[in-house]
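Entry 12.
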Amino acid sequence: MKFTYKARTSKGDIQVGSIEALDQQGAEDTLRQHGLIPVSIVSSSKQPFFSRNIGFLSRVQSKQLVIFTRQLSVLIESQVPLVQSLKTLQAQTKNKTLNEAIFNILKYVEAGSSLADAMSQQSKIFSDFFVNIIKTGEVSGSLQKSLLYLADHLERDHDLKHKIKSALSYPIFVTISFIGVAVAMMIFVIPNLVGILEEAGQELPLQTRMLINTSDLLRNYWWFWLILVLALGIAFAYLMRLPQGRKKLDSIKLKIPIFGPLFQKVYLARLSENLSTLVSAGITIIQSLEVTAKTVGNNVYKEILLETAKKVEVGEPISKYLKQSQEIPDMVSQMIEIGEQTGKLDKVLGHISKFYSKEVDTAVEGITQLIEPILIVAMGIGVAILVSAILMPIYQISSGAGM
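Predicted 3D structure (tokens):
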């Protein structure tokens, strides 16, 4: 059973979180064992809805995970015992979800579990990739190096995501703003002009009639558009829950004009870096392919990697199946083939990752420079249509009155 608690630390600070226990007394005993003085303990099922963690509001951001990993690396390097290191990090972690995760990890570690096994119980925060690198570090006795390597890797991945968001945020913001202004004009401005235009008794231009009809549809049938948007949203969410639906969307993303090649470079950079990291850590190539498939972030590449793992399992080289995949450039499959032949696959994958990381930087800069004039032209056309539809009949009325 899960309980939400509020407790006071030895320093008098208030700490909140959740804990798994058989009953309330068990939860209280566990808190006291960790040096916490319970203030309140409530079953999560009895907790008010508004005070519960809401998915996207309580998630752990990639930057927070980078900071946690790097700080844990520093503490381990300073020869602070693992349990004490986790307690220190939990005490200073502000994110409620990550704080709870550290608390639960600490509970498992104190019970004799390895750090990797304890983290695997928090799969929503720590991916298979993360857990496997930690496991390798524990087995080899180089946990600090593994944590530092993970922190660097997560930071690069965070920077990559940030670049993509930066490239997409501007066109999305401008497009939504323009649509919002256009809808506002349809609802509030156009109806006030209709009476004036109709009183003139002149035949209205085609674009004006279309504008008036669109305005009427938006104002008189707003409930239909609301239902349509909700229905499309629900249908899209349901489709994304289906493996084939998710794969179809991921396939479309790779074919979108301008942005498709960028997405492909992002996935190839992530794929090659994750594989390089896992292989260099001593994890078997089959397991590395399977773990990377779960972390690549695109179902098209996920299926390619899982199918490649099956081929490798029966003795075929990685490059043989990759050559048959249209989504894998010939350069990548050829370099991987060279890496397999020379026994330096991890280094070759590292070079591929660096190459595509630079390609992503170049592509983002190019898109940023290209998208601005495209948006300006598109908005200019849209504004011209709206203005001409409104001003042309007014000009005709004024010209008729002048005669």
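Annotation: The longest strand covers residues 2-8. Confidence is low (pLDDT under 50) at residues 49-57.
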